[in-house]
Amino acid sequence: MPNIKLDEQAIQQALTELNASTAQEWTIENDKLTKSFRFKNFQQAFGFMTMCALFAEKKDHHPEWSNVYNKVDVQLVTHDVAGLSAKDFDLAKKMDALAGSI
Fold first, then answer.
1. CATH T-level fold of 8-100
2. Whole-angstrom Cα distance, residue 27 to residue 23?
3. How confident is the model at residue 58 (pLDDT cuts 50, 70, 90)?
4. In what order do the strands lie in the sheet with 27-29?
5. What is the reported pTM?
């Protein structure tokens, strides 16, 4: 399936579906899908990042993120389409699932 930039309506629909199953919502900031994850400690935060990194590498879709102690800030965007694509929402769903498993 080719990577296609989502239009505003598709983004809002995907965002609504994504947030229907999570306590802490994803938002759109600077045209990027954005969320801050908080964990009990650095070990859990780093473990989350490691699991996400393995998945992201398999999908060849890599997050923009940072980590300070127990907090992981994530921004997702598909650079080759200069915007959001289904790949971003798929990765966001996986990140929510991985965060919930910790």
1. Gyrase A; domain 2 (3.30.1360)
2. 13
3. very high
4. 27-29, 32-38, 71-76, 64-68
5. 0.93
